[in-house]
Every structure is written in structure tokens, then in C-alpha cells.
Amino acid sequence: MWCHLVGHYCFLVNFLWLSMCLPSHMLTLSQHKMEMFLSAVMLLLVGVQTAGSPVSVFRPTGGSVTLEFQGHLQLEKEDVDLIQWYFGQEKIMKYAPLRDSNTIFTYQDRVEFNKETFSLELKNLQKNDSGLYSREIIARETYVVAEYRLSVLDPVESPVLPVVYNWTSCDSCNVTVTCKGRDLSLTSTCDCSTCCPEEEHSTDSTLTLSFEADVITCNHSNPVSWQIATMDIKALCSRTGQNQDLSLPGPVSSWIRIAGGALIVTLCSAALYWWVKRLERGVTEQFVPADSPSTADTNV
């Protein structure tokens, strides 16, 4: 919008300078033109005064938005000469009410202009539609400008809330949880009655961890959507006399089971080996022949 105003201003200044340099026999015509353009300068100055901070608008990908401004209610429709909508420096459309002429330059299949409210509706929004939109209303004695900062965002992903560590005894319960959402992560330690709230922000989303009515809540949100994951702390603290370390990953637990199994097999093998050796020794002693009496007498 400012670039549009500066461009108009530079054009008017150049025209005024040329008018002052014209010969004297063209002075009357130049003065008439000068009066016209001085009026245009006044309208331009009014527009600069009415220009404020852009209105922030957030919409989800694939959704729609209607950009409207209540300033037109102060204008008589028959006094309006031209309405123009811009996306950055690119002109989207223009409408001349007196001629009922409506021209769409871009967004051919995704834009709809309301001739009564001068609002602009954009459909099937995509991320590259994010940016600054401006509207200019040129009337006989007024120059109304409105600006909108549109942000098109994807809906957030569902967060996860795994338990990292859980210690439960007869008189206490400590639970450590991790709240994860896309590229954000929070870790907090809770007991049966309290849990430290946490919050973290990224460029387009927020992750919060809260505790209320015995429920731990992980909330992943942005201006257009939100998703939560919850956990009942009483369910984790209901059993007493238990110490569960849930931080061990699956492969570590598997190796522990394998090592335990190998130890049992080794002990069983050693016991079997000892039993077989003992059995063999007993069989050998049973079948060794003793000296007979007849043999002893013959030798004598």
C-alpha cells in the first residue's frame, strides 16, 4: 500500500513541476490541471492518514477467508469511484461501481468479490497465499485503505505423551513424562497432586504441558488447530511398592532376557554334565570283577 501511495505522490510531484515550467500562454490550462491534481494530493494525504497497522488473519490450508473492512459503511456507494485489491504489489481486481465494471486479474477460479460490502473472498487457500493484502477505496473526498496480513498454516500433528520413569511406593508417586509435538519437546516430573506446567514455542506452533484434576495434558496447537494427548496419573500411582523404570528401550530389554536365558541354559548344562559323570563313575565300579577263591588256591 505504501508503495502505491509513494508512486502516486512521485507522479503528482513530477506533473506539478512540469506545470510550473510551461510557457505563460498555457498558464490558465496548467492552473486548472494543477487544481485537479492538488485535490488528488489531498486525497492521497488523507489515505496516508487512514492507513493503520495490518490486521492479522489466520486460516488453515485448503480453507477460505473473507477480507472485509467496516470503513466502507461511512461512504455513500454513489460517491465511490474505484475499489482495488492487491496482494503485495500484484493487483488482484478492480471494481468501478458507477459503470458496474468488475475486472479480475489473478486468482480467477478462487476469488469472489462482494459488490455491496466491497469484501474479497479467497478460496482453497495454499501456503503461498500468505502475505500482505490491501484494499483501496477511492471516493470523491475520501481515500480509504485497509491492510490484512494473511497466514495460511497446516493443521498441527497429534502429540504423544510417553512415560519416561515411574516410581511408586506406599507414600509417594513420582512420574516423569515427555510431551512431544513435531519438532517441540517438553519433559516434566509429576506426583499425585502437582505437575510443573511447561510451554515451548516454534515459529508457527505451541506445545504446552499442564496438570488438572489428576490428568496430565499435552497440547499441540497453532492459530488454526489444536490436538491433545492425556494421561490419568492415578492409574500410574494406583499400585504401591513398585519401581518401574520405563526408560529402557526395547533392544536393551531383549538383551537382558537373552542373557538371563543363556545363564539358565549354562547352569542346566553344568548340572547335567555333573550328573552324567557321576553316573558313569557308578557304572564302572559296579562291573569291575573281584578275585575268586579258586584262583587264589591254585596260586598257592
UniProtKB/TrEMBL annotation:
<feature type="transmembrane region" description="Helical">
    <location>
        <begin position="255"/>
        <end position="276"/>
    </location>
</feature>
<feature type="transmembrane region" description="Helical">
    <location>
        <begin position="6"/>
        <end position="24"/>
    </location>
</feature>
<feature type="domain" description="Immunoglobulin V-set">
    <location>
        <begin position="53"/>
        <end position="138"/>
    </location>
</feature>
<keyword id="KW-0325">Glycoprotein</keyword>
<dbReference type="InterPro" id="IPR036179">
    <property type="entry name" value="Ig-like_dom_sf"/>
</dbReference>
<dbReference type="InterPro" id="IPR013106">
    <property type="entry name" value="Ig_V-set"/>
</dbReference>
<keyword id="KW-0732">Signal</keyword>
<keyword id="KW-0472">Membrane</keyword>
<protein>
    <submittedName>
        <fullName>CD48 antigen-like isoform X1</fullName>
    </submittedName>
</protein>
<dbReference type="Pfam" id="PF07686">
    <property type="entry name" value="V-set"/>
</dbReference>
<dbReference type="InterPro" id="IPR015631">
    <property type="entry name" value="CD2/SLAM_rcpt"/>
</dbReference>
<keyword id="KW-0812">Transmembrane</keyword>
<keyword id="KW-1133">Transmembrane helix</keyword>
<dbReference type="GO" id="GO:0016020">
    <property type="term" value="C:membrane"/>
</dbReference>
<dbReference type="InterPro" id="IPR013783">
    <property type="entry name" value="Ig-like_fold"/>
</dbReference>
